[in-house]
Amino acid sequence: MGDDLERRDYCFPNRISRILLLALRDVMGDNGVHAVLNIARLQHFIETCPPPNFEPGMTFDEAGRLFDAIEGIYGVRGGQRLARRSGEACFKYGIEGFGGVIGFADFALRLLPVPLRVRIGLEVLAEIFNRYTDQRVTLGEGEDSFFFIIERCGFCWRRHSNTPACALLEGLLEESLYWVSRGKRFFIEGVSCLACGDPVGTLRVDKTPLN
Question: Average pLDDT of 98-121?
């Protein structure tokens, strides 16, 4: 698999590409998304949204250009705020697209202690990325935190930043954990990022909820 993968572009499947574009439209509106897609040279996504299947869709190179374009229009801080809100919106569409895989609503899960629910939620998200995309994610755990470790990231692909550029993943994790914990918020921060030249991207998630 490794050799075959190196011979083609890394990518997200159509289903996840579709979720991303629908979430961006929710947050930025049609005009905003059209402007970003034009600047990123992704005009083919303006008229045709990818179908909800698992055929190869948006490449990592395209995703990296997309988020570079967002920051180019709205600035780094504004672009990261939009990316984080888009990550939150991705969760809604992800439930529709991966409901059978996620299984967060299982009654037995809701009886578990909150830290264990959070870990299971992070494991499921990592499994979705690892199974259905060319993104590569592992999990780590410390005394007070979980670590969502991204070894290959489409959202940071070929990008260069002075600050962690994983805002979309932060939003996705925040909304996912809010749901799996039944209404609790957790502090999540990017502590390393491939776009910053770090060997891996790392999102730290506090085990203790904020509320």
Answer: 71
